[in-house]
Amino acid sequence: MFNLIGKTTENPKNDILSGLTVALALIPEAVAFAFVAGVNPLVGLYAAFMVGIITSIFGGRPGMISGATGAMAVVMVALVAQQGVQYLFAAVVLTGLIQMSFGFFKLGKFIRLVPQPVMLGFVNGLAIVIFLSQLGQFKFIDDAGTLAWLEGNSMLVMLALVGITMAVIHFLPKLTKAIPSALVAIVGVTLAVIFFGLDTRTVGDVADIAGGLPQFSIPEVPFTLETLWIILPYSVILAGVGLIESLLTLTLIDELTQTRGQGNRECIAQGASNTVNGFFGGMGGCAMIGQSMININSGGRGRLSGITAAVALLMFILFGSGIISQIPLAALVGVMMMVVLGTFEWSSFRILKKIPKSDAFVLILVSGITVATDLAIAVITGVIVSALVFAWKHAQHIRVDIKEEDGVKVYELHGPLFFGSSSYFLELFDPANDPDNVVIEFKYSRVADHSGLEIIDTLADRYKKLGKNLSLKHLSPECRNLLSTAGDMVEVDVIEDPNYRVATDKLA
């Protein structure tokens, strides 16, 4: 029911119309995230424009929308509160430089280490976060200055307009796909509110988005080491959060469109956009999964869609604030609610009982942490837990086949030798009862880390104390190099050693 993605190719008309739809949805998001960060709404809008235009032109994922995001905004709050907005601009410049270095050193490939359960948790968690963020539009500040839910007719009108918006988005594509259904819904609901004079909150009630062109200025901070130490921790976290969200969104869109983006190129583009942001009064940003889903769902596939969204947003700021201010927030909430339905991986409920319990745990864990804290912590935690589970499972897969050849006992090792399996490794041997010559056959195994090296040395020492000779056979070149670097602690038979091919990064 909620399969909102159409696998279409690039089309200029679709890209332009989709870009206009995204631009309308960007406004309340950028304003809201500016409030979260404690800065002027125009700082968020300028960031959405500059990040959007630069990543759309130079990024590695056509069709992906970038702008000011909540994941990065929550990191900025403390810096702005303690040091002021100028320190934020300096931190954003440094953030961009860090992100560009990731791309130049081709570190974007490591996003492939994120397991599928973490990806599902990331998608579900962000869908929940987007849903929760929209609930704020159903509240108002009462006379006592507290946040309260809308009541009576106000709530009914809000719910009705959200429902109508969602219905148009869902059913219109069944009749025609000539125009993005989200754009039709926004325009239609806006005209209905104006025509019937309905009392409901609009974009103009949130903030005045009128402004001029962003102006170049160097952040007004002391250029000292003290300043660097103040902004560095924030810049590192912002760079990590931005790249994780951008690369995971890139991977998600790759799967939806059955194409492949360029992770390292995207890192450079994201970094360049943030550096420019810092010099033009923007709060920085990264890829936005919600707006990217709106774009893909509306038919946007090429760079033109992102460029259109960014340029249209700037035009709204310069010339169209009066018109945009009349758009009901309910229409934009309806669009985002459909994004939630399309983003959430509903099949995860069905597969939870079919996948390993450890994967199900990671999926739920990442979703929960994404909602409770932030994306970066959730993904890093999920990767660590998945890695530990993987290590534990593979630690139990090590075994040996034993045979004797001309008085030489051969242990044919199966499974990787690494920190997790090292304790099991020693239990496989019987130095006291073994003959004088013992060979460990590594044809079906390999030494993976220093722990594996140390445990071989420990085993060799046991045989040496008994006056027996231990040899290793069929080590890969990588394993031999590991042993030789450590000082040839054990005798190695290099005859007929296989040459294992190692996968390389082919992403630009």
Describe, in short, the structure shown.
The protein is of the alpha/beta class and 508 residues long. The protein is 61% helix and 8% strand.
Structure write-up:
The strands form three sheets. A five-stranded mixed beta sheet has the order 5-6-7-8-9. Mean pLDDT is 86; it is low at 1-6, 489-498 and 500-508. The chain is 61% helix and 8% strand. It is elongated, with a radius of gyration of 28 Å. It has 508 residues and is an alpha/beta fold. It is built from 20 helices and nine strands. α5 runs antiparallel to α14. It has two domains: 12-367, no CATH class; 396-493, STAS domain (Transcription Regulator spoIIAA, 2-Layer Sandwich), CATH 3.30.750.
Helix-strand layout with pairing:
Layout: H1 12-37, H2 41-58, E1 66-67, H3 70-83, H4 85-104, H5 116-135, E2 139-141, E3 147-149, H6 152-175, H7 181-196, H8 203-206, H9 225-257, H10 263-279, E4 286-287, H11 289-297, H12 303-318, H13 321-324, H14 329-343, H15 347-351, H16 357-372, H17 375-395, E5 399-405, E6 408-414, H18 422-427, E7 437-444, H19 450-465, E8 469-473, H20 477-485, E9 491-493
Parallel strand pairs: 6-7, 7-8, 8-9
Antiparallel strand pairs: 1-4, 2-3, 5-6
